[in-house]
Amino acid sequence: MQFVSQRPYTVMLIVPTGVGAAVGGYAGDALPVARAIAQVADRLITHPNVLNGAQLYWPLPNALYVEGYALDQFAAGRWGLRPVHQNRVGLVLDCGIEPDLRQRHLQAADATRATLGLSLSDYVVTDAPLGVTLQTAASGATWGTIQNPDSLLRAVDKLITQAGAEAIAVVVRFPDDEGSDALQQYRQGQGVDPLAGAEAVISHLVVRTFRVPCAHAPALLPLPLDPLLAPKSAAEELGHTFLPCVLVGLSRAPQIVSQIVSQTIGQIGTQIDTQNPAQPSDIWANQVDALVVPATACGGSAVLSLSQTRLITVGSNTTRMQVTAASLGLPAIAVNSYLEALGALVAHRAGIDPTALDPQLHALQPLDKTLDGKANGKC
What we know:
379 residues, 10 helices, 6-stranded parallel beta sheet, alpha/beta, 5-stranded parallel beta sheet, globular
């Protein structure tokens, strides 16, 4: 499909983490959506929850892999994204990971170097167990806590300052909960990912502190074979680690550039960071043309920041949230499926009003009508 546009057509695709999204709430099951949108857009901006599929991944040259906290800051206009050819990825391993399981992750990391040609620094093991706990909110959404966040930050700092890491992959030992109802439902493609909320806490902390790309892969013992395993959950049960997709995503994740807001007497201005001057390839929020989200998950920071962008809400991608565009007063194009969303994006990129594709095209009406629907005025 050939398009001609005046500037790169940029789409942001968001599927919030840990809210039980029917599409994107499992093991990389939103990746087909991302692949399709990447064929329509010049640039696709999305996050690890969409692109990560454990040991499965798909190279999308025009997709930008942006961690959730960075995505929110980008949408708010505070951070920009700078595309790169390659990042040197640093690996943090939780010292709470058992020796055999740690070795499995190191072998996976070496495999990406030997087989995919990724650039990795030497790894760092945290000086204390990170101690992740998992929680579930009343809505059913998942979240978690870290008992020793300072240990994680010390490890990341060492990778950046001593090993020259430009992106950070974190592997933390998560609690095994083989017999839980939540895990069983997730394996059957019906529940909420019990790990996703805690994973977001880990990556948010690193990105907020160091302003570098980051993503997380949980370390867990392999589960027993389940012949009833849902296809949407199957990618996470192919091996001993979820690390490969994270390393692939981080290897090309855009770097973060920031704006410094300087205030003087009687004047507030925006100044680009002089330590990291702007480049023509930098991408900012005002370049986003369209935003695609689940219809009931419109309350996130990025959606609210980009409320003036063409918002497309997908009804079939149900979530545990109940925050619609209408409830927030946000104008949106409501579609039933991602197939319809693709059509809306094609029309928008082509500069076609979607109503022109409807067989019932209504005539233009006077702008200033009286309450009873009659035109106001004599002319």
